[in-house]
């Protein structure tokens, strides 16, 4: 499978879909088929990414540095797989739940998928910005989906805050270019090994802020609760499940791979920010009444866990960060979709995803948290390990307080066979990963193995 | 030259942040446009030190870095699209709420939250 397959397919399809009326069933099925095709193309790239030479492609056959290099190593592939599956699941859910109400919805979702795949596959800092903006612009369009006044308010907040994040990111990329003289990530890595140790500190800080806004950890979290509460449930699932992956992937790619020196200097800061957002997220999740706000604060605490994992020295912590990001993405999607409906099926799916978020076995969330705990204890960060356990207990409490209060017995809004299948598939994935964690753990370990220059 | 450029970038960014904090949506939108444009100017300013004429190559003099110019062009296009999207959103918010003041929007939001809580109380 050539590398441009999963990039070009959703892009071309999105352009075609933009001219079609998305409220018709066949258009929605076309979009679903396209995203499924993208997923299959990405799966076909798996053996190549795990071979010695990661698949690579330079645009226009120019020499590297002039042409844009696209490259799919293990980290890119696992993030692309999980994000595309989540986006696909959400689109199927929205379609079978009762029809899409906006003409542009399928096109925007497919464009978001294209942007996400591009972000994960590119190996050029500015190209990263372009794909990032493609995904963000699609998300800006999606944020107001539903067209109610509350959706519009959520969209406005989301757009303004994330535009600031995008400007910071653009500035950081340009600073990287001005300092190192290249935009190609592999060349920046080579420059960083030889260059002065503090040269990339300013762009690194700006990148931390930009990805912090995307991922939503303390103190960049302020937009998340309002947006997740007031956007539609499917949109909230897309934003929390798929789009937040850009933040965790960006931190891993730029922090661990491109600028390991800056990450090493930022460790104490990350530790403080991570601990603060774990505490803040789990305590405020307990105090909220609205289920979606509870979920938003739980995702802030999850972001804190990822940051904490990044702050640990050595590879174990980084593997835990990958596993946390992947498991968290599926958890959040399942939670946001399940809380929208009433009835028996929704209750079951919600509890599985809530157990996974809190890290109760046998779920995917348990293994990622266990890995983080092991890494923290091996490094001698006992207080941090205590904090992780405390956060898990608090988020279990908060999620099940919401569970008790939620209007589960609401009439007429139960999950039917189609929507139930989507939510069940997500929850089942969490349980299967809990009973057979080898693929998840191996994905985390191999993804980090492919990166950079760490000891 | 580089001093003037950096002062202008800083000024644009500061004015943009100030306007984002205003209470009217159009001003907030204009503020974000200014911030986007301050980063575009920063990109262009990056190529100023070696700048002779725009693409003056014939007498061996300094040449503007074409990469930065193409980056600026891309950023302008993206910024333009997103600004258009933002203004559409302002327009639709105005139609839905009948107001452009953020305090009105907050009032509407609080009203909805209270209504939901009342419903749960019963």
From TrEMBL, chain A:
Its main location: membrane. The chain crosses the membrane at residues 28-46, 75-93, 105-132, 152-178, 198-223, 235-256, 268-287, 350-372, 384-403, 415-436. It is a multi-pass membrane protein. GO terms for cellular component: plasma membrane. Keywords: Cell membrane, Membrane, Transmembrane, Transmembrane helix, Ubiquinone. One of its GO terms (biological process) is ATP synthesis coupled electron transport. Residues 124-338, 351-394 form the NADH:quinone oxidoreductase/Mrp antiporter transmembrane domain. Pfam families: Proton_antipo_M. It comes from the Bacteria. InterPro entries: CPA3_Na-H_Antiporter_D, NADH_UbQ_OxRdtase, ND/Mrp_TM. GO terms for molecular function: NADH dehydrogenase (ubiquinone) activity. The keyword Disulfide bond does not apply. It is found in: Cell membrane; Membrane. Belongs to the CPA3 antiporters (TC 2.A.63) subunit D family. This is NADH-ubiquinone/plastoquinone oxidoreductase. It comes from Corallococcus interemptor.
UniProtKB/TrEMBL annotation, chain B:
This is Na+/H+ antiporter subunit C. Pfam families: Oxidored_q2 (PF00420). One of its GO terms (cellular component) is plasma membrane. Its main location: membrane. It comes from the Bacteria. The chain crosses the membrane at residues 6-21, 28-48, 68-90. Belongs to the CPA3 antiporters (TC 2.A.63) subunit C family. Keywords: Cell membrane, Membrane, Transmembrane, Transmembrane helix. It is a multi-pass membrane protein. It is found in: Cell membrane. InterPro entries: CPA3_antiporter_subunitC (IPR050601), NUOK/Mnh_C1-like (IPR039428).
